[in-house]
Amino acid sequence: MTSNAHSRRPRVGILGGGPGGYEAALVAAQLGADVTVVEDEGLGGSAVLTDVVPSKTLIATAEAMTAVAGSTELGLRFPGGPGPDTEASGSVGVDLGRVNHRVKALARAQSDDIRTRLEKEGVRLLSGRGRLDGPQGLQVVSGEDAGAHVDVDTVLVSVGSSPRTLPAAQPDGERILTWKQLYDLDSLPERMIVVGSGVTGAEFAGAYNALGADVVLVSSRDRVLPGEDADAAEVLEDVFRRRGMTVMSRSRAQAAERHGDTVTVTLADGRTVEGSHCLIAVGAIPNTADIGLAEAGVDVADSGHVSVDRVSRTSARGVYAAGDCTGVFPLASVAAMQGRIAMWHSLGDAVNPLALRSVSSNIFTSPEIATVGWTQAQIDSGEAQGQIVKLPLSTNARAKMLGIHDGFVKLFCRTGSGTVIGGVIVAPRASELIFPLTLAVEKRLNVDDVAHAFTVYPSLSGSLAEAARQLHVMG
Ligand SMILES: Cc1cc2nc3c(=O)[nH]c(=O)nc-3n(C[C@H](O)[C@H](O)[C@H](O)COP(=O)(O)OP(=O)(O)OC[C@H]3O[C@@H](n4cnc5c(N)ncnc54)[C@H](O)[C@@H]3O)c2cc1C
To answer: Residue of the nearest CA to atom 50 in ligand 1?
Structure first.
């Protein structure tokens, strides 16, 4: 190698500026690389512009509505409503146009913040659709910077995924919608049919129900949230029904057709459901077609996902991949970690392979469902050796004061050693409550370590310590 080659900054090209891509760019810039990001839609990616940030902002308004609806129990009265003991829901309404205006403004501002940060760190930003030009090149094929080409030493593919649709239920952006098209609605749908009861379907069904829409949730499975903790799914389905949502289980949607202001969803067994709008939330497909992966020697699974190892390497030397396009764990936090790991690895910094053991995730329904570590299904099947304690929140003093009736904490520890291996929390703000359990799983704390730490009295987290106490094994 010449001395010139020694001193040249390593060049990194990143395709896709979502959490997988922009977090990688920050690490690469920090490590002294010459970094270029090619982004099609806007920095922050789908996470910021159409998925995480907009959905959680909409849900913040839905949460406020849920809190208001539950506040009569705490003694609040709403003079505008129909009677002295008026239900709050009779007197409070939502202006969806304003809500969506706020949602979009917030997402744009967040995207701008990310752009500013990347520019400040000296990252070159190219706007447009890009593709790999072999394993050591990126080219922009359309958009503002069409025609641009960069030679690089390392490529990171972080192109994300897009909503899957059904052949006979094509979104029109007005009445039949993907989750990316919801924010152009300027008034509350009268009757929203949500097709798909996974995390996305459940979150939007819950949100629109709380905002005051009549919601029908069409689920092909026995219960909502297939694959999630069964007790948590049961609580949520019960809450949904109590709040007036129609939950149709074992009902596979086959088609959605619009006639004027009406959408008709046809189920596989021939039944039909009518509504004013329909949200199709039946999963996502990776954006990996036509971006030069095969030509660069990158293996892609039949599902379209890029195959990666635990340091984000693909089958092609120097090409890494991160985020939803890898199908490892469709979470912004995991995408970001995969992207950082790719850069630490390729630029020669210290790196730990991706550990999914302590990934915490949350379903932003009301109540929220947060999980970490091993699942009860894995323990029940014998895949993991564990003890389980489940405590309903209805016995927690703070929950009673707050008028919380639904939810529980569940803690899993390794049989014998008592090491905390996972847990589930179903509660308002479970996303915030899960962190001590994540720390316990990550640091392999024992149930006694958790039990001996002070919790505030009264607090919901008191139930976590109580669950840990109940798992104590006499020494
Ligand atoms: C409704 C919804 C809510 C969600 N809520 C949460 C949540 O609360 N918490 C959480 O952790 N996760 C959540 N997720 C998942 C999260 O959005 C994804 O895991 C995350 O966006 C993945 O990041 P990424 O970088 O892989 O891809 P993305 O965020 O999708 O970014 C990829 C970017 O690449 C760009 N791109 C694609 N192809 C090209 C190309 N050829 N050239 C140039 N640019 C290209 C795209 O335009 C996009 O901007 C949610 C998902 C959905 C659908």
So the answer is: 52
Distance 326 CA to ligand 1 centre (A): 12
Contacts of 348 by beta carbon, 8 Å cutoff, 6+ apart? none
Q: What is the pLDDT of residue 83?
A: 53
CA–CA separation, 24 and 53 (whole Å):
19
Q: Return the residue whose CA atom lies nearest to atom 21 of ligand 1.
A: 47
**Whole-number Å distance between alpha carbons of 235 and 226:** 13
Which residues of the chain are modeled with pLDDT < 50?
1-5, 84-86
Strands (E), 112-196: 124-127, 129-132, 137-142, 149-151, 154-157, 161-163, 176-177, 191-195
Residues in contact with ligand 1 (CB, 6 Å cut-off): 15-21, 38-41, 45-47, 51-52, 55-56, 129-131, 158-160, 179, 200, 287, 291, 323-325, 330-333, 335, 364
Structure confidence at residue 81 (pLDDT)? 58
325 and 314 Cβ atoms separated by less than 8 Å: no
> What is the dihedral angle through the alpha carbons of 464, 465, 466, 468, rounded to the nearest 10 degrees?
90
Atom index in ligand 1 nearest the CA of residue 163 equals 53
Q: Mind listing the pLDDT tens digit for each residue in 367-398?
A: 999 999 999 999 999 999 999 999 999 999 99
Work out whether the CA dihedral 298, 300, 306, 307 comes out positive or negative. Answer: negative
Amino acid at 27: V
CA of 382 to the centre of ligand 1 (A): 34
Compute the distance between CA of residue 398 and CA of residue 208 in angstroms, rounded to an integer.
Answer: 28
Radius of gyration of the chain (CA): 24
pLDDT at 19: 98
Look at the block and give the residue holding tokens 């189920």.
267
pLDDT digits (tens, 9 = 90+) for 455-467: 999 999 999 999 9
Q: Quick one: tokens of 194?
A: 């949500």
pLDDT value for 1: 39
Closest-CA residue, ligand 1 atom 7, reads 52
Which residue's C-alpha comes closest to atom 2 of ligand 1? Answer: 51
How many angstroms is it from 33 CA to the middle of ligand 1? Answer: 24
